[in-house]
Each structure stands twice: as structure tokens, then as C-alpha cells.
Known about the structure:
Elements: H1 2-8, H2 20-32, H3 36-49, H4 54-66, H5 70-83, H6 91-108
Helix pairs in contact: 2-3, 2-4, 3-4, 4-5, 4-6, 5-6
Amino acid sequence: FRSAAQSAGKDARWTWVFNERGLNGMAYQLLNDKQVFLAVRLFEEIALCYSDSPNAFDSLADAYEVAGRHSEALRSAQQAITLLPVSRLPDNFKEQIRQSAAQKIKRLTK
Length: 110
């Protein structure tokens, strides 16, 4: 999967399928459809392929939390916050991610 996604990212014909946003949407759809195991696996692959993306780790934290994997959710949410300062995302999106990750951290450390 990783090599296919990375290779496809270099070919304009496939970028609509193998980009972080599209893959994230597919993973959230799996999560919404209660296919938690598959959603977690896809979110894990997204985080591996886009290891500098705070959004990938925040989304992975969502999936881990739904799966009851709270220590992994906490680590992923913390990683999302760690990546924010060097991210080239727009400031408003970075703030949304920060708030989302901070809320998860608060829930998971009670």
C-alpha cells in the first residue's frame, strides 16, 4: 500500500485517489460504517505515508479512541500537536487540529 500510494502521488492520474485527504475520507467512512479494524489499519497506513502530517495523527487518534486503544490514541494526539509548529498547513486548519487533539488528550488523561 505504501509504495503504491507513494508512486501514485507522482502520477497526476492517481493523485485524486492516493492523497492524504482522499484516503482520510475513506478511512472515516469505514469508521462511520463501524468497520473499526479496517479504519484503524487505513489510518495507520496514512500516518506512515504522511508521517509529517499532524492531521494524519489526529485522525489516527480518533480511530484508536473508537477502537478502545486509549494509550495509542493519546500518543497519536500528542504527535499531532508535536508536528503542528513545522506544518505548512493553513493556520486555521492547524488550530482546528490543535483543538481536536487537545480535547482527545484531555479525555484520555482523566
